[in-house]
Design a protein that fits this description.
The protein is of the alpha/beta class and 193 residues long. The protein has helices spanning 3-14, 17-24, 42-58, 74-83, 95-101, 112-118, 148-161, 163-180, 188-192, and strands at 31-35, 62-66, 89-91, 104-107, 123-127, 144-147.
C-alpha cells in the first residue's frame, strides 16, 4: 500500500457524510461529485463538462466538482450558465471531503477513480469520444462506464434509486482496489517505519 491511502482510510472511518454535506451547503441533496481531469484539447473538456452538467441537471442532482490541480475554476460555472443550469459547487481542495459528500462519483480518466472506492462510493466513468479511455476497467466491475449524457443520466438515475445495484458496484470497487493497490489497509506507514 501507499501511505497516502492511510490518511484516506482514517478519514473514511471518521467522516460524517451529513456533516460534510452541511459544510458544503448540500444538506438534503443527492450529490454527484465530479473528479475532474485535465484535458489536452479544449473541446474535449467542454464536451465532458456539458455532458456531465446536463445529466446531473436531468436527474435533479447537486453537482460538486473537485478540480484537477491545473484546472481553472471558472469554466464549470460559465458553461453551466450558458446551458441554463445552476452553477456547480467547485472545490479546488478537499478531495476526500468531495468524495465523502458524494452519492455517486463521476470521472473520466483519473487515478481518483481508485480513491472513491476507498470511501465506499460508486464510480461512473464517462468516456470521451476519440480519446484514450479507461478500457482496462471495462467489464471488470467496480465502475460503471457510460458514453455521453443520455447513458450518464440513466446510470445516475439507477444508482440513486437502486440501492442494491449501488452496493454491488461499491463491493466490486473494493475488489478493484485489491487488484491495483497492494495491502490497502491503512497501515502502510507502519510497515515502512
Amino acid at each position: 500500500g501507499t501511505t497516502i491511502y492511510d490518511d484516506a482510510l482514517e478519514y473514511a472511518q471518521r467522516a460524517d457524510k451529513g456533516a460534510i454535506k452541511e459544510t458544503l451547503g448540500c444538506t438534503g441533496d443527492k450529490v454527484v461529485t465530479v473528479l475532474s481531469s485535465i484535458f489536452t484539447e479544449i473541446q474535449d473538456r467542454r464536451w465532458f463538462i456539458e455532458n456531465a452538467l446536463t445529466a446531473v441537471a436531468d436527474q435533479g442532482l447537486k453537482c460538486v466538482v473537485k478540480l484537477h490541480p491545473r484546472e481553472d475554476a471558472e469554466t464549470w460555472g460559465r458553461i453551466a450558465s450558458q446551458l441554463g443550469f445552476l452553477k456547480p459547487l467547485v472545490l479546488r481542495d478537499g478531495l476526500w471531503q468531495a468524495i465523502a459528500a458524494a452519492d455517486v462519483v463521476l470521472s473520466w480518466y483519473s487515478t481518483t477513480v481508485l480513491d472513491a472506492p476507498l470511501l465506499h462510493r460508486p464510480v461512473v466513468i464517462m468516456r470521451v469520444p476519440g480519446k484514450n479511455n479507461p478500457e482496462s476497467l471495462a467489464g471488470r466491475g467496480g465502475v460503471m462506464i457510460v458514453d455521453g449524457k443520455i447513458e450518464l443520466s440513466k446510470a445516475l438515475q439507477r444508482l440513486m434509486t437502486d440501492r442494491e445495484q449501488c452496493e454491488v458496484l461499491v463491493e466490486q470497487g473494493q475488489r478493484l482496489l485489491e487488484e491495483h493497490i497492494h495491502k490497502c489497509d491503512g497501515r502502510a506507514g507502519a510497515r515502512i517505519g
